[in-house]
Amino acid sequence: MNKFSSIIVVSTIFALTSCNAGNNGYTISGTIEGAADGEVAYLQNRVN
User: Fold this and answer.
1) What is the pTM of this model?
2) Second label for 40, Cα 20 to 30 Å away, from 7, 11, 21, 29?
3) How far is CA 48 from CA 41, 45, in A?
4) pLDDT at residue 39 above 80?
């Protein structure tokens, strides 16, 4: 039973740390004139 408990503990540690491995995104802050608080804004590439 001790070996099984060790496997569970190690598996739990790996699962919890893998979700917090790093920031894979961007944080953009600023204001948009005419938008209400909490309104969703979609970002797009500008095409000429």
Assistant:
1) 0.37
2) 21
3) 21, 10
4) yes
